[in-house]
Design brief:
Blueprint lengths: L1 E8 L18 E10 L4 E5 L3 E4 L2 E4 L2 E5 L4 E12 L2 E11 L5 E8 L4 E10 L4 E10 L7 E11 L3 E11 L2 E12 L7 E9 L3 E13 L2 E10 L3 E14 L2 E13 L16 E13 L3 E10 L4 H5 L1 H4 L7 E8 L3 E8 L10 E16 L2 E14 L8 E13 L2 E4 L2 E14 L9 E14 L1 E9 L4 E17 L38 E15 L5 E14 L12 E10 L2 E9 L6 E12 L3 E10 L3 E11 L4 E10 L4 E13 L3 E10 L8 E9 L3
Antiparallel strand pairs: 1-2, 2-3, 2-4, 3-6, 4-5, 5-7, 6-7, 7-8, 8-9, 9-10, 10-11, 11-12, 12-13, 13-14, 15-16, 15-42, 16-17, 17-18, 18-19, 19-20, 20-21, 21-22, 22-23, 23-24, 24-25, 25-26, 26-28, 27-28, 28-29, 29-31, 30-31, 31-32, 32-33, 33-34, 34-35, 35-36, 36-37, 37-38, 38-39, 39-40, ...
């Protein structure tokens, strides 16, 4: 037996036998003390021993190395490290040639997942764990945890197992009979909890959970209890697929309740029924970046079910929609199949059953000319809400235009436009079976481009030079007799209320069934003031635009001059932003509409936003929103809304947000309302959302 102290051992670089074979890659072995048995070929290393074999490093209190079997045995704090991957154990073996190990009392994982197990066998790429516990983030009483008798772990890729349980900390909550989970996606897709009180609902608790039941498929349920209304429950789930150039994501949620509370009336003044419910579905799919399939289906039993029970989902989008669209992007064209349904009985929806559309993007045809074309066929239907008959229309529509850009100078571009649109109705009204309408347009678009640069710098506002871009624009369109034949056309795609300037081009008009003649000149002026960005390109300091229309042949209810439209955006510094949209009467300079927003922001600590909304004879409200970060865990917020016309505070909300271990978001909020009849006058809410597991 040989013995050495504090010397490196190059055991495989020195032959101890005439018959020994040389290994292509020799381990580098070091230790403060070692013994070597010539008979068994095993070295016992102590005193900070280490064995390096290519990218692999082995450490332990004591290492046994058998040269003949290429086997390393570790005792006490046995560590296997290769690159960024590391496995820790109390003891075990590791085969240098195959990378196979057998370990006890194991710790492994990739942030943010931490794994402990009673035993492990396998390789660094794939290991089987016995008595495994998977924790998201730092272990603790509220840390999401997965328990499994046996677990197959592929670092950074997958977790596969059976007879598992999900819980918080040491508490097991739900069983997982079988799971096969990619670590690129959360193990628990959704875990939410809401507890609180609202005047219209009473005290309530609402819990939601989604768990994997198959690779890429999550299922679960949301269950709630409202003391003034009763229990509410419904399934929810999600799905995902990403392979072979195809990506699919989708989710659904639902809720059903036998509501014994004060339900009041819906948007149409009808009593809301006792049995209420909703179903929401979203789908997004892409194939080879050319084909997309997008779907949404929102069914509400009554107009206020989401407002009553899920106001955070209702207020951003207050009108449910149900559509399915398949689109294919060719080299210079789009082909689109679009279907819109009307599953709800409290809103008017122009249904497409379906609409097929082909769009040819502007294409050069020689001589400096560009052509544009689109055509569609639509089966349209609109059902009445209370009284009246169903409107139906089968419509074929085609548009073609040709334009010729002219640039007499680098600062001037002039584009004459000529086009035509044919619309054929297979189901006409007014005593006719069919009706064909032919429309033509003539017009011109002109732009003048001017710019100037200024050598101005300001360190406080982070300004490094100035560039001013000035673009006056003129657009003219003449579309005569567009209103003809109106009595023969079913009015389904008609004018919708908007405070924006309508499109000028005949090919862009959407209210195809309710057109009026156009003889209009649009004048606009775009201003942009920029500075160099500290990282890349430029940054807009001021974006100021003006526009107005002149109607040479005003339609009924239309003035010769439209309002003056003004849009202003100021960003003099990254921490300051001001926005304004305004409409002024040309004749009297009366203010028709004014929307403003002023925002101060410190990216890491606080944000303050003041805004207003004014619509003549309709709305005059003011808003204040403030957020203040206290530390890594806590953030406070407040929200105020004041209605000047009603002389009341519509809302006063105060709250806190808590980040619990980078795993849970907890929101505490208390609110007072005035004038909101359905929500009542007071609300208190605690919402808990799982960030990821």
């Amino acid at each position: 037996m040989l013995r050495g102290t504090a010397v490196p051992l190059l055991l495989l670089l020195v032959s101890v036998s005439a018959t020994a074979q040389v290994t292509p890659l020799a381990p580098v072995v070091t230790a403060e003390d070692s013994t070597f048995d010539l008979t068994t070929g095993e070295a016992v290393l102590t005193g900070h021993p280490r064995i390096e074999y290519g990218p692999t490093l082995l450490l332990a209190d004591v290492l046994h190395y058998n040269r003949t079997q290429n086997l390393v045995t570790g005792e006490g704090h046995f560590t296997i490290t290769s690159g960024a991957e590391r496995v820790l154990a109390q003891s075990g073996t590791y085969n240098l040639a195959t990378g196979v190990f057998t370990l006890t009392d194991v710790r492994a994982g990739n942030p943010p997942y931490a794994i402990t197990a009673a035993s492990a066998t396998g390789t660094r790429a794939r290991m089987t764990l016995g008595g495994a516990v998977v924790t998201y983030g730092e272990p603790g009483a509220f840390a999401p945890t997965l328990y499994a008798d046996q677990l197959v772990y592929e670092p950074g890729k997958r977790l596969v197992g059976e007879h598992g349980h999900v819980g918080l900390g040491d508490t097991s909550l739900l069983a997982l009979p079988k799971f096969d989970q990619s670590l690129e996606h959360p193990l628990i897709s959704t875990m939410t909890a809401r507890v609180g009180y609202r005047s219209n609902l009473g005290a309530y608790v609402d819990l939601g959970l989604r768990l994997p039941v198959w690779p890429g498929v999550d299922l679960g349920a949301e269950v709630g209890e409202y003391t003034n209304r009763g229990p509410m429950a419904g399934p929810l789930g999600g799905y995902r697929y990403d392979s072979d150039g195809q990506t699919i994501t989708g989710s659904f949620s639902s809720g059903f309740i036998h509501d014994h509370g004060n339900r009041q009336t819906d948007l149409l003044g009808r009593p809301i029924p006792t049995d209420r419910g909703y179903f929401e579905w979203r789908h997004q799919q892409t194939i080879d970046d050319r084909f997309t399939l997008t779907g949404q289906f929102s069914w509400w039993q009554d107009s206020d079910v989401m407002r009553d029970f899920h106001p955070s989902q209702f207020y951003p989008v207050q009108q449910p929609d149900a559509f399915l669209e398949a689109a294919y992007a060719g080299g210079n064209y789009y082909l689109d199949l679009f279907t819109r349904l009307a599953p709800n009985n409290f809103e008017v929806v122009p249904q497409r059953l379906p609409e097929i559309r082909f769009d040819l993007l502007p294409l050069p045809v020689g001589g400096g000319l560009y052509e544009r074309f689109h055509a569609s066929f639509a089966v349209l239907q609109e059902d009445p809400l209370l009284t009246g008959s169903t409107l139906r229309s089968n419509r074929l529509d085609a548009f073609y235009s040709i334009s010729r850009p002219i640039t007499p100078a680098s600062w001037l571009s002039i584009t004459p436009v000529a086009g035509g649109r044919m619309t054929y109705y297979l189901k006409a009204t007014g005593g006719r079976d069919t009706y064909a309408r032919w429309l033509g347009e003539l017009g011109v678009d002109a732009e003048l481009h001017a710019s100037g640069t200024f050598d101005y710098r300001n360190e406080l506002w982070q300004i490094d030079g100035l560039r001013h871009l000035l673009t006056p624009k003129l657009s003219y369109r003449y579309i005569p007799e567009a209103e003809r034949g109106q009595s023969f056309i079913p009015l389904i795609d008609r004018e919708a209320f908007s405070t924006q300037l309508p499109p000028l081009d005949l090919g862009d008009v959407r209210n195809l069934d309710q057109l009026g003649g156009m003889h209009t000149l649009r004048l606009s002026l775009d201003n942009v003031l920029q500075t160099r960005d500290a990282t890349y390109g430029s940054r807009d300091l001021i974006d100021f635009n003006l526009a107005s229309d002149v109607h040479f042949s005003p339609q009924p209810g239309q003035r010769r001059w439209s309002e003056i439209y003004t849009a202003l955006g100021l960003t003099p510094a990254p921490w300051l932003r001001f926005e304004l949209f305004q409409r002024l009467s040309v004749r009297t300079l009366a203010l028709r509409e004014l929307n403003t927003g002023l925002e101060f922001r410190d990216r890491d600590w606080w944000a303050l936003r003041l805004s207003s909304a004014y619509l003549q004879n309709e709305i005059e409200q003011y808003y204040l929103e403030y957020e203040q970060r206290v530390n890594e865990v806590w953030k406070g917020f407040t929200r105020l809304r004041y209605d000047t016309r009603a002389r009341r505070w519509n809302e006063l909300s105060l709250g806190l947000r808590q980040n619990l271990g980078n795993t849970w978001n907890i929101r505490y909020e208390i609110s007072w309302y005035q004038g909101r009849q359905r929500e009542g006058s007071f609300g208190f809410n605690v919402a808990v959302d799982l960030i990821r597991f």
